[in-house]
Amino acid sequence: MIKTACGLDCPDACGIVADSEHFPKVVADPAHPTNNGALCSLLNKHMWEESRITKPRVNGEEVSLDKALDDVANSLKVENKLLWRGSGNFGVMQEITNLLFKEIDGTTSKGSLCDGAGDAGIIAGRGINRILPPEQIAKAEVVVIWGKNITVTASHLMAYIEGKKIVVIDPIETPIAKRADLFIKNMPRSDFYLALMLTRFVIMQDHEDREFLEEFAPEYEDFYDFTREFRIKAILEYIGIDLGIMGELLELIVDKKVVFLVGNGVQKYSTGNFVLQAIDALAVTLGHFGKEGCGVAFLGNSKLGFDNPFEIKGKKVQKATTNFGDFQTVVIQGGNPVASMPNSSRVIEELKKSKT
Ligand code: SF4
Description:
Layout: E1 2-5, E2 15-18, E3 26-28, H1 41-48, E4 57-58, E5 61-62, H2 65-75, E6 81-85, H3 97-103, E7 107-110, H4 116-126, H5 134-138, E8 142-146, H6 150-153, E9 165-169, H7 175-178, E10 182-184, H8 191-204, H9 210-216, H10 220-227, H11 232-239, H12 243-253, E11 258-262, H13 272-285, E12 295-297, E13 316-318, E14 329-333, H14 337-340, H15 344-352
Parallel strand pairs: 6-7, 6-14, 7-13, 8-9, 8-11, 9-10, 11-12
Antiparallel strand pairs: 1-2, 2-3, 4-5
The structure holds iron/sulfur cluster (SF4).
């Protein structure tokens, strides 16, 4: 038996045990803190339903490993070469290719196509983006699932939300929305305004945690003034809800232990940083930080405090705006720029100009 980790690009990073005699037989590592003894359907699908690549291929043709390596080496001899790595590769070892590109004077990519905007918003507010431990979710009374389809993208969290009051905020009626005590179907791109309106109502109705605010956010009255710059009726119409729904939601989150589980979709805009900052501000107003069973969970920085040996200086381009056509050779690792970068047609045209 070999103890290892799931190779899919997923934050749970489940521990797995592989049976070396009967590969690909794998089971969940019971010692892993979050997988609750089970692996998800995504891994099972990839293990059993996807065809496996067992031989190197060049331009779709199977070739020997020596030929494949020669072709790669030759394509890296050009002057302008780029290593473009997708966002979300959690395994540090995947960054070892940085060292190769440093040696051959290549360009690497920086920034994020995944959670970068939300991360920036959280850092602007809190100063640091820590991961909320799942044990705190287990201690909550109410779980607000905000733009996150957890039955698919974080199925191991299901065990932690068992028996809680569930609020789902999502433009789409996901499977978890069907099980929620309250489902708010808001309009896309309205999350920022919903968080602002909730904060305004919390303060208007004297439900703010004044002691917490005076200690950690003494300028909160300025923020309250900012929330009052928006007309309630027009903003609620824009969000797609009415005062009755706002009242139901407030009743569920005021004076309770509440955890907010926030998905990536809410911040995939040029102003996405403000969405996470506004949701954080709502939680701060309710005093939901630094207490058992409370907090805002977003993709935290999994490398916080880690001295990464593969961090290199040198030429870098932004992932979101890379001009692939500027390079003679492009190496794409762990990502699909056509699907994940803005303006897919532009990306396809750019990629046609280089050897990929
Ligand atoms: S949840 Fe699924 S995809 Fe994610 S690490 Fe665990 S087994 Fe892998």
